[in-house]
Amino acid sequence: MSQPPTAHDEQGATAVEYAIMVTMIAVFIAGAVAIFGLSVADLFAPVLAVF
Q1: Residue-level pLDDT at 10
Q2: Where do the structural domains in the chain lie, given as residue ranges?
Q3: What is the DSSP string of 1-51?
Q4: Model pLDDT for residues 9-43, shown as the tens digit of each residue
Q5: Where do the TM regions start and end (predicted)?
C-alpha cells in the first residue's frame, strides 16, 4: 500500500494560514497608522518647521 498524498493538502493549508496572517498584520498596521498617524505628525511638526 502506498501513502495517501497529503503534501498538497498541507501546503494549501499553509498558504491559507500565511494569507490570514498577512491580512491580520496589514489590518493591525492600518489601524495603528489611523490611530497614531496624526499624533506622530504633530510630534514632528517642529522639526518640519525648521526646514
Answers
A1: 62
A2: 25-50
A3: ------HHHHHHHHHHHHHHHHHHHHHHHHHHHHHHHHHHHHHTHHHHHH-
A4: 566 678 889 999 999 999 999 999 998 888 888 88
A5: 20-45
